[in-house]
Design brief:
Rossmann fold, globular
Length: 275
Amino acid sequence: MIRLPPDLEKVIESAWQKTQDIPGFLGENEARFLGILAACVPAEGLIVEIGSFKGKSTVMIASVAAHYGLGPVVAIDPHTAPSSTDPALGTASSTFDDFQASLKSAALCEYVESHREFSSVVAKEWNRPIRMLWIDGDHTLRGAKEDFALFSRHLVNGAVVALHDALNAFEGPIRVFVEEILRSDRYGPAGVVQSTAWGQFRPKDGKDFRELRSKIERRARRILPFVSSGTSLRGLRKIGFKLVRSRVPRAAITPREWAELVSNKTPDPTAIPLQ
């Protein structure tokens, strides 16, 4: 059983207080879940964030990592605008100044190693082990698959990959989750919190969790036809998308529940409740 820090809930609450007012698209349940991962993933290595925007997830993760002395969070984002995957930015100026302001306000500048580059550029020189990989960058199929392929090769045993917006109307995150994690015996426990999908890298015993992953995969794969065409979701199509999405288990998870799930050597097929 993973040993949870006795002050974890207090630390996550403090981190959320620093995080909640930063502009961004991260929900409270998934932000708190990232805090759990930052503190509890049972592996050695760095925390890597691909896609920082204005620093909402960065502050959450770095606050927890700094408290426990887990090393810097590596934040990778070119901070360009306009963005092909975030049309709302329009022709706005770069988000880099806002990102730096968020870190400064939270007194976290020294705990974040920022790379103002595209992830593909950083990957060319990357040779460090990764314990937590948070992918929230280019949500296109090509972009998400590239980020996963370039950085997942550096995962250490027990590391966790998390992808944002897997249950929103983007093709990249959900396809990577279904095709590269849920259908692979290189990964063990997996799940979704709000719209954040995750899987633990377990190449030695991932096959033991196949039934658990399959249980989620049967629900999650139904989303693929709705996001694969590249057309906008309207009318009956939008209703259908919301219906199949609602069938994917995505409830909040407590630190103890998560620790029990990833510590289980004989997986319980009922550990992931269906809604």
